Amino acid sequence: MESGPIVRDADRDDVMAVCRFGEEHVRAHYAPLIGDEEAARQVRMWWNTTNIAGAVARGAVVVAEDGGRLAGVGQRGLDGGEHVIRKLYTLPRHRGLGSRLLEVLIGRLPADAGRVYAEHLLADERAAAFFEREGFTVERVEPSGVVRRVRGR
Questions:
Q1: Model-level pTM greater than 0.70?
Q2: Does position 3 have pLDDT exceeding 80, yes or no?
Q3: 119: closest CA among 91, 135, 138?
């Protein structure tokens, strides 16, 4: 008997569900922050099957599953040689899962990775508060409105 959501590595069978999660939940989250059109563009760019399937194949995506349904998604990647949290989203009723997703993503980094970065929109106050609670500090704010944060391991 399961006791709440589980966090696990995503596999090939999760790709379409992760894409749907982006379309249904991430788009709605971003629309009030950046407008409907830009939110739709962001989802098309970053939550498409090619992007997600590639990240899953690299072992860079984790999912939180509750009763067979996705409750959250996290993705890490590289930006140059820097390790970056690319995606970290949970359904509103599963907000507490963000810390678990982040912990698993960071746990998958190479042993010699001394820092990890996270990016979020300046207008996303909820993400700002989350990353501050998780020990990330602001490194810079880009003209595009993206905030880059860093945390040592």
A1: yes
A2: no
A3: 138
